[in-house]
Specification:
single chain, alpha/beta, Rossmann fold, 2 domains, seven-stranded mixed sheet, five-stranded mixed sheet, 30% helix, binds S-adenosylmethionine
């Protein structure tokens, strides 16, 4: 690799100490954000070869898009991730650039990111407006890389290399190792990282729900929901509660975006257990995302293919009122549904066009006191879903209730 491909942007003191044991002494890429100190260059050059300065104002350079796929032994990004406009885009590109088995080491300040775009934490769930949870973020790429380490570390009051100094604070470290073979979304949903996140969410729910009897919720999860959903536990628990709010109303239920059927199963089981006379209409291509994607949704292309109509039919087979509608929505809407009324709607389709199409069909058919949940509203990685919701409700009387901790929105028709 030519020397000019080794980038340096600053504060690499910690990694200078850590690289020798964990990184091969081949030339990888080091990204850092803060130093203009020429004295560290000779020092680092001795270990890593020639270094090229990196312009902090040009965050797109951090994406390493000019670096060939599978070409580097490692990428170190020290205090860089929080400057990137889209976190998973940066992470995905760094993983792309390293060889299978290669390492990606990331350090970010915890929570406060004065100059960065993002505040990152380990314990707080992601909320919109540029707050992200490192564990959740790791989960979004765990189909491409295993998580070798996520840890928190106090930095000393100053850390100097040459004249470069860093002030005290808590840093978060994330070390990923590129998988030799990318996992499918279903496999990654069962990966250790995804399981860890589920445990974190489960203990948070248990801690907050001490006064509640969660046995019905858990029984419903065990009826086949868990194995058939990519929706996290916190979101499932909210959904369980919102469906209950609609049980006294009239009308059917509808879900667009069912994938392997997990969330549809949750609704279906609750209706059965409570003896509610209502259809549940379940829409999906059952063959993956549509091709009609906005430029910033291109990462969704080809995803959610590991499902089938037969599989979801089998999951919901115990409910004779579960009606499956395979194909691209809205073309897949049967004519008789034109006269339907819905008490509860779950829109989980991720993309701008699909969310817009769903709202256009569902909203005018809602019971006047019904509930619509729109998944992914406010999710930093699904900007199209947010755009579609905001545009649709701009001239409507309803207030969009944002659920920032789980990146979704709830619309109560009567409010
Ligand atoms: C995030 S997944 C749904 C997750 C699911 N609710 C669960 O419990 O895991 C999104 C799904 O929306 C589907 N989808 C998106 N746009 C669609 C459209 N216009 N018509 C039909 N299905 C669509 C995709 O095929 C994909 O299966």
């Amino acid at each position: 690799m030519p020397d000019s491909q080794i980038l340096l942007r600053g504060e690499v003191g910690k990694f200078e100490l850590q690289i020798p044991p964990i990184f091969p002494r081949e030339r990888g890429i080091i990204l850092g954000d803060r130093s203009n100190d020429p004295t560290m260059f000779p020092e680092l050059s001795r270990q890593y070869g020639s270094l090229r300065r990196f312009d902090p104002a040009r965050s797109e350079e951090a994406l390493l898009q000019d670096i060939a796929e599978d070409s580097l032994p490692y990428v170190v990004a020290d205090n860089v991730l929080q400057h990137c406009p889209r976190l998973s885009v940066a992470l995905t590109n760094w993983i792309r650039a390293v060889k299978p088995g290669g390492l990606i080491a990331i350090a970010v300040p915890e929570q406060v990111s004065r100059s960065g775009r993002w505040a990152l934490s380990l314990q707080e769930p992601s909320v919109p407006e540029h707050h992200a949870n490192l564990l959740e973020l790791a989960q979004t790429v765990c189909h491409m890389a295993t998580v070798e380490r996520i840890s928190r570390r106090e930095t000393p009051s100053t850390l100097g290399i040459g004249t470069a100094q860093r002030t005290a604070g808590t840093m978060l470290d994330l070390v990923l190792r590129k998988r030799s073979r990318t996992l499918t979304p279903v496999q990654s949903n069962h990966s250790p990282e995804a399981q860890t996140l589920a445990k974190v969410a489960a203990s948070a729910i248990a801690a907050r729900g001490l006064a509640r009897d969660l046995s019905e919720f858990h029984a419903i999860l065990d009826s086949g929901v868990r194995q058939a959903t990519v929706v996290d536990l916190g979101r499932l628990y909210l959904m369980y509660q919102w469906v209950q709010r609609s049980l006294l109303l009239t009308g059917d239920c509808i879900e667009v975006g069912s994938y392997r059927g997990g969330t549809a199963k949750l609704v279906s089981e609750l209706l059965l257990r409570r003896g509610i006379e209502a259809d549940i209409h379940v829409f999906d291509t059952f063959a993956g995302m549509p091709d009609d994607l906005a430029p910033d949704e291109i990462g969704l292309k080809g995803t959610f293919t590991e499902t089938s109509l037969a599989q979801v039919q089998a999951l919901l087979g115990n409910n004779p009122r579960a009606k499956l509608h395979p194909g691209l929505f809205p073309q897949s809407i049967p004519p008789e549904l034109g006269a339907a009324q819905f008490r509860f709607a779950h829109i989980d389709v991720d993309t701008e066009k699909s969310v817009r199409d769903c709202l256009e069909f569902i909203y005018p058919r809602m019971n006047g006191n019904g509930v619509i949940i729109i998944d992914d509203y406010g999710h930093p990685e699904c900007p199209g879903a947010t755009r579609a919701v905001e545009a649709f409700f701009a001239d409507k009387p309803q207030h969009i209730v944002q659920m920032p901790l789980v990146s979704s929105a709830v619309v109560l028709m009567g409010c």
